[in-house]
From TrEMBL:
Keywords: Hydrolase. PANTHER family: BROAD-SPECIFICITY PHOSPHATASE YOR283W-RELATED (PTHR48100), GLUCOSYL-3-PHOSPHOGLYCERATE PHOSPHATASE (PTHR48100:SF62). This is Histidine phosphatase family protein. CDD domains: HP_PGM_like.
Length: 223
């Protein structure tokens, strides 16, 4: 097992779940504009998405909520907190990938100005998009936060992590022990959809992916 194995929970037997929930819609999602770590608020529809999803997630009786401190994730998390009476722990390590010069550009602008860099990233090569973070660096900051909060759960407990598309994908890839060039195969999350990891005897397993609604377009895959 490579060094990423240190992130895997090998204890088994405790039956814990981690739900990784993407934030609701923003105006930049609709414009296909790369947000990255830019602090963009939810649209009215994004707030409505958060309220609908929160009702479903509340029925799973989560034990804890941790969220990115960016407005779009914090506002999404607040809807679940209001239904569960749980406090939200905010952590900047759960922010979306910092993508430097890509941030604020539309998909078409990125393809025009950074087409070769985009193609290399899609091939699974380690790329600092716009001069920003590597995906492995995002996983290295986010995965330990998720595991730290999961370790505090009771047996059979559930943690909800409210974050961003790219950060969730890289965190899932790291927790499953996948090689980084395979992380893209997980696919994106639609706004306010989630993935579920369950704890097994040999570590974490992907139980559900992009759950929570009928299939919808994935807007702003990495933000």
């Amino acid at each position: 097992m490579s060094s990423k194995g240190s992130f895997l929970n090998a204890s088994g037997g405790r039956g814990r779940r981690v739900i990784l929930w993407r934030h609701g819609q923003t105006a930049w999602n609709l414009e296909r504009r790369f947000q990255g770590s830019t602090d963009i608020e939810l649209t009215d529809e994004g707030m409505a998405q958060a309220r609908r999803a929160a009702r479903l997630l509340a029925s799973l009786k989560p034990d804890a909520i941790v969220a990115s401190d960016l407005k779009r994730a914090a506002a999404t998390a607040a809807e679940l907190a209001s239904l569960t009476d749980l406090d939200v722990a905010h952590d900047g390590a759960l922010r979306e990938t910092y993508a430097g010069r890509w941030q604020g550009l539309t998909h078409d602008e990125i393809m025009t100005q950074y087409g070769e860099q985009y193609a290399a990233w899609k091939r699974g090569e380690p790329v600092r998009r716009g001069g920003g973070e590597l995906e492995t660096e995002v996983a290295e900051r986010a995965a330990p936060v998720v595991l730290g909060h999961a370790d505090k759960l009771p047996d059979g407990g559930t943690l909800v992590v409210v974050s961003h598309g790219g950060t969730i994908r890289t965190t899932i890839g790291r927790l499953l022990g996948l090689e980084p060039h395979h992380w893209e195969s997980l696919g994106g999350l639609s706004n306010c959809c989630w993935s579920v990891l369950g704890e097994g005897a040999r570590g974490w397993r992907l139980l559900e992916h992009n759950a929570g609604t009928l299939p919808e377009p994935v807007l702003g895959d990495d933000d």
